[in-house]
């Protein structure tokens, strides 16, 4: 009788694990289908980084990317989000270090910042601005047309406000962090309400369960 009960318990546990895994698999499939239907980030971009080097999105294939659109004259939101972005990268690296993982086991993650204000955010301006953030944060700018094309691929909203007496102006824009997988396609996105810890956990989960989006 004890053996029967034990066997039944084992079978029930296995069934529960199977159902949980199947539920998670179906959730991932639905998420993939939703993102593919949105067609976010499936195009390329041709910009210039803050060192003056020409960059295309295809340059980052094989790496995980956390991407944020903003501008260097942003008074508070952009600095806060870029600090958050850097902290997420550090949390992921610290977690890998605590686990005693071998070098190279954490998929490389590249923090990216694309300006929505190319008129003021030159290569030199980006280089000065990014000194205050994560050392691997890469800033991208370009012509107004190239920057608009990059933002359009992610449905980024950006609208410059009226200039003040000194000619300064703010740019109203989307506040979202985008996660791109090694295939260059969007895997997830995070609004301002998400904390560094929540984003890091989500990114790590995507890394651990990654499967390329079906084309």
UniProtKB/TrEMBL annotation:
CDD domains: SCO (cd02968). It holds the Pfam family SCO1-SenC. GO terms for cellular component: mitochondrial inner membrane. GO terms for biological process: mitochondrial respiratory chain complex IV assembly. Keywords: Copper, Disulfide bond, Metal-binding. It is a single-pass membrane protein. Cu cation binds at residues 74, 78, 173. Disulfide bonds join 74-78. It is found in: Mitochondrion inner membrane. GO terms for molecular function: metal ion binding. InterPro entries: SCO1/SenC, Thioredoxin-like_sf. Belongs to the SCO1/2 family. This is SCO2 protein. It comes from Indicator maculatus.
């Amino acid at each position: 009788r004890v053996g029967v009960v034990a066997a039944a318990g084992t079978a029930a546990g296995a069934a529960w694990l199977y159902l949980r895994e199947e539920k998670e698999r179906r959730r991932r499939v639905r998420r993939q289908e939703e993102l593919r239907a949105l067609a976010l980030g499936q195009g390329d971009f041709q910009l210039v980084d803050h060192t003056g080097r020409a960059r295309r999105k295809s340059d980052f294939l094989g790496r995980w990317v956390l991407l944020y659109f903003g501008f260097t004259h942003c008074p508070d939101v952009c600095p806060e989000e870029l600090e958050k972005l850097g902290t997420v990268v550090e949390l992921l690296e610290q977690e890998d270090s605590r686990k005693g993982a071998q070098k190279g086991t954490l998929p490389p993650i590249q923090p990216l910042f694309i300006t929505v204000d190319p008129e003021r955010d030159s290569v030199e301006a980006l280089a000065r601005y990014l000194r205050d953030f994560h050392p691997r944060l890469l800033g991208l700018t370009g012509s107004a047309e190239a920057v608009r094309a990059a933002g359009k691929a992610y449905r980024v909203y950006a609208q410059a406000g009226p200039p003040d007496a000194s000619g300064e102006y703010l740019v109203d824009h989307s506040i979202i962090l985008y996660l791109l997988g090694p295939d260059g396609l969007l895997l997830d996105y995070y609004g301002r309400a998400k904390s560094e810890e929540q984003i890091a956990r989500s990114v790590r989960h995507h890394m651990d369960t990654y499967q390329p989006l079906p084309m």
